[in-house]
Write a structure and sequence with these properties.
The chain is an alpha/beta fold.
Length: about 325
Amino acid sequence: MSVQGDRAPALGSRDIRQVMAVADKGSIRRAAEIMGMTQPGLSKNLRLIEERLGVALFERSTAGVKLTQAGQLLVDRGRQVLLDLSAIERDIDETTRGHAGQVTIGLGTVIAVEIATDLLAESHRLHPGIALNVVVDDPDSLLERLRSGRLDFGFFHIEPQGIGGEFLIREVLRTRPVVLVGRRHPLVAKPEVSPGDLQNFRIAMPKLYPSFGQWLEHITGGPLKPALIGSDFYQIGELLERADVYSLVSPGLQRRLQRFFEVVGIPVREFDFVHRAHSVQAASRPLSGAAQQIKALATRLMIETGNRNPDQS
């Protein structure tokens, strides 16, 4: 009589990838195309996998295929298995080659403007064996990349409520936003500016996250009047020069924009909002040695940027 330990594994990494590809495409034919297989060959493999497991993984119909409960479980657990296998290969490679390898990080749009150039330059100087890739995107997209293992970690603002335990989130920097206007803006000549004065002008900003937008509407006494909502800060700087609009930026971004545009920061009474930047990584995947070094470097650059005064070059 055979025992459980004598049985060959029911699944291999290739099996998991095939099931995941079919689940992703919703079609055996399309999955076969992207995997360089024939449709009959992939169909046969899926049948063999189901026979070995003793369950159906897909509901098949003329409209395509849909995961069963067992199939969904395999995809969810299989994704983590593949990530773990990749991490094992990465760690073995690092053990033999030192802290070399590839690191991919995600940056929010504000943080990218402030540190991306310095981070890429410093990582090349200090860690020439590490190939660093930087992805700039909105928080929701960066979180999805972290879930799927396409990012090692990220630096961006996140509102942790409702995120759950799948991510390790740590606050790394607090900054107070600065009100930025063009040099010829009417508020520049005003001896004292109150939050209510901003209601007379339109705002140019990247995407406003909920708590920031709610606070700004509350303190200014009315709904915001958008002039430009987008992540191109140089376009925002040009607009500030040419129109009576205002923006809210970090001190580091103020310093950068003042290199290129005729813009000034103005003090506003009772302007006490605190912006929080976080480091975020998947809780299930420890960072490689190379990623730890890049994370330490990025954290240092963020803190240095946050501690500089806007008039420092």
